Predict the 3D structure of the following.
Amino acid sequence: MTKRKVQRRAAQWVGWRLIRAVRRVLVVGLYHPLLRIWLSYFVITGRENIPPGPVVFAAQHTSMADTPLLLIALGKRADRLVVTAARDYFFRRSRPGFSVLVGVAFGAVPIDRTGFARRSLTDAAAWLSAGFSVVIYPHGAIPESDVHAQRLRRGVALLARQSGCPIVPVRFTGAAQLLPADVHWPRRAAVTVTFCTPLVATPDEPLTMLTNRLLNAFE
């Protein structure tokens, strides 16, 4: 009888049961009550569009509150979930404690925003194979203009095609007013999180076409 080979994943401890339990307590007992203070209303739509099993959540990046809002909106589905975060910002060797903080608090695992992202793609695929869903922000950063908002990186499409997992586009409405980039204190806002119809990559579909379908889902 041969043993199944388990592929190591970057920041593998983020998926440990104890760490996930701590994160769930933070989402329910801290993030939600705190954000509710500034939310005039909070609506979640399209949760029925999320298929069972691991998926790639391709989320708009509109504010500094996107990740906690998404964790709240997903409910129990956030238990087996990791959120990709920029290696060059959150996982600097000069501040290792910060990477532990975001790993525990948000399920953050490193991803490369620049250069050839083979390592990031392999890591993300390994998480999916282990039964975890993966959140990716295909804009790479909060867009500075409408022009930048029209530019998505192809990593989501490449990961979906390689893994065979569906893409669930996630659209935020109002989050940009809640906690914009470079603002450190929330503002009163009404927020809607929408889980759009899943996108499935086909073997012969160009990555550019799949990326364009994802962009259309954000509009």
